[in-house]
Specification:
Length: about 325
């Protein structure tokens, strides 16, 4: 479990949120024409009805930039004010430079330091915690944190085990230091962890330094996502529950105090199992995976923005964000909205 040392106290607030999903919709009916699957199977096993696909010329940084602009507008923050940009992604524009640097160029944030985080579906919450530490130490004041993915670029579109699950999109949040102490949307506590013993149950085996891409392994599609779904499922429920309860405990709260749980959007059954085990009712659990599928690092970020913009979360609410992904990694963040 997490060994987080509580940061020295200053107030880190979520000053604004934004999200962007590409226009192109791929429905379960479309997938029925591509692989041996059915709307019934996908809906009953996952809850997903459709997902978005980036256009050919659209890179992860383009999705991230669109989400970032909306978050900056929501926060009333200019590009010059940003002094830190973190992009959480497993589908970067390229191995290097960082996707965050492309976003920096796109929005003209010349005063920011920029880097990426690779923590799969937990990446957005890892990035929030990293930004929080930068802000708490006084090193940085205004951070743009983005979860963005173009997973369609690394899916094997002939593998029904995985291609029905994933989608493209981006979500962003602007984090600011607030010394008044009475600002809302305050990040209260967090719990993060990893377990490197299960790297093989969800990964892309080829294309990196361990297996540089060749004609042969590209023909075998070793540069696409491989997942042992059932193993991931079992670990996801337990790890997200533990992380959420740990973040709540660190914030002096229990599951009974939760007004809205915003979980990683991989599978409706996983989300329902967490809610049941924590005693959090369905109406206090945010789900939008029916529209977007699993967008990895973008999922919690998009869900947070939608919960914010639709009024699903209100001033004063105890909001628990929780995620789980490849690595394995897991993370939870408690926010007093
Ligand atoms: O974001 C990171 C975290 N990722 C997750 O949290 C994903 C976790 N895992 C899951 O969500 C679920 O395990 C899946 C949705 C991936 C699979 O659901 P499941 O209930 O665990 O199904 P299964 O893997 O046990 O497969 C059941 C059957 C298999 O057939 P047999 O071997 O029982 O004959 C599969 O071949 O369903 C078959 N199957 C499909 N059938 C129709 C697998 N994919 C499909 C498909 N359409 N798309």
């Amino acid at each position: 479990m997490s060994r987080e040392i509580p940061p020295t106290e200053c107030c880190v607030t979520i000053a604004g949120t934004g999200s962007y999903v590409p226009e192109k919709v791929l429905s379960n009916a479309d997938l029925e024409r591509m692989v041996d699957t059915s709307d019934e199977w996908i809906t009953s096993r996952t809850g997903i009805k459709e997902r978005r696909l980036a256009a050919d010329g659209q890179a992860t940084s383009d999705l991230a930039t669109a989400a970032a602009k909306r978050a900056m507008e929501d926060a009333g923050v200019s590009a010059e004010e940003l002094d830190l940009i973190i992009v959480a992604t497993i589908s970067p524009d390229a191995f290097f430079p960082a996707t965050a640097c492309y976003v920096q160029k796109n929005i003209g944030a010349t005063n920011a330091m920029c880097f990426d985080i690779s923590a799969a579906c937990s990446g957005f919450l890892y990035a929030i915690q990293v930004a929080r530490h930068f802000i708490n130490t006084g090193n940085r004041r205004t951070a743009l944190v983005i979860g963005a993915e173009k997973l369609s670029s690394m899916v094997d579109w002939e593998d029904r085990n995985t291609c029905v699950l994933f989608g493209d999109g981006a979500g962003a949040a602007v984090l600011r230091r607030d010394d008044s102490g009475d600002a809302g949307r305050k990040v209260i506590s967090a719990s993060l962890g990893s377990d490197g013993r299960m790297t093989d149950i969800l990964h892309v085996p080829g294309g990196g330094s361990a297996m540089p891409i060749t004609h042969d392994n590209a023909d075998q599609k070793l540069n696409t996502i491989r997942m042992q779904g059932r193993e991931v499922y079992k670990n996801a429920v337990n790890a997200m529950r533990r992380a959420a309860e740990d973040a709540l405990q660190r914030g002096g709260l229990t599951a009974a105090d939760v007004d809205m749980l915003i979980p990683h959007q991989a599978n409706k059954r996983i989300i329902e199992a967490i809610g049941e085990r924590m005693g959090i009712p369905a109406e206090k659990t945010f789900i939008n995976l029916d529209k977007y599928g699993n967008t990895s690092a973008a999922a919690v970020a998009i869900a947070l923005d939608e919960a914010n913009k639709t009024g699903a979360i209100k001033d004063g609410d105890n909001v628990v964000l929780v995620a789980f992904g490849a690595g394995l990694t897991w993370a939870s963040t408690l926010v007093k909205w």
